[in-house]
């Protein structure tokens, strides 16, 4: 696991086997947590085709719904008919999973509700954009759908950054001019690393990957490609702590007065060259304090918070304890408990 950096915000300068699929029963999120409509897709130049099927990456509806959980084999190291959980070194890559914006093109997606600049969102992030960037494997290794403990990350990652803008009405746009960018760090993780409870539906070979990750939980915005160099895929998956990854955005970084919510997200590939891929866009869930995600913060949540106690400067916090780290400094101590108490509402009170 990796210790979070201090809680100061990062400066603004700096489908399942088919198309993007709806949430399934038992997930802590629902369809409305993701973009629900394609408002406009203008194909840019340089859009390629799926090397297995020959189909172009031009189906914009693949960006609706949650990001891809399982993709397929690539035909080189893994048979194309095999299911392959998306991991940070092996991203979604099929035409029924992703849409490519293309140089000079753009994609506009809409939510069916306002995406809020919510003060209790983890790390202050409000939405997450998923592409198909990936961490580079060290040496000359390749992903073979094997033991995540056996694959070590090398230096850097592969990304095709695209510019992100947001709007309330689809007419007036506010752009993250200096980043962060779509299809950049961090790479998507489709399933939780859970050797104790692997998903048997994937086949007898699967000894490592459990339930789908949660795309409404963002990554620590201080992380970058260098964070995981020299660590294994298993290390990186554990550090995600249930998150599906993606690139997080905070509306406050735009420094626009009274921009408290948005409904539309526009992603553009740079006119100077680049072919940004988009898998999904999610609304971040205001997780702090609400462990069971039932919409309130009550004594059941407080019991979980106590189990997460580490003390000051003695992190990293245990797995699954992000809701208890109210100040985002990587541990769970008296400061977090004081904030947690301020969040208490009682049962059924939002």
Q: How far apart, in Å, are the first and last alpha carbons?
A: 32 Å
Instruction: Name the helix and strand elements from N-terminus to C-terminus, one letter apiece.
Output: EEEEEEEEEEEEHEEEEHH
The largest pleated sheet is described as: 5 strands, antiparallel
Estimate nothing, just give the exact number of structural domains.
Answer: 2
Beta percentage is 15-25%
Report the principal-axis shape.
Answer: globular
Structural class: mainly beta
The parts where pLDDT drops under 50 for at least 5 residues are: 1-22
Radius of gyration from the alpha-carbon trace, in angstroms:
19 Å
Task: Give me the count of strands.
Answer: 16
Our count of helices gives: 3
Portion in helices:
under 10%
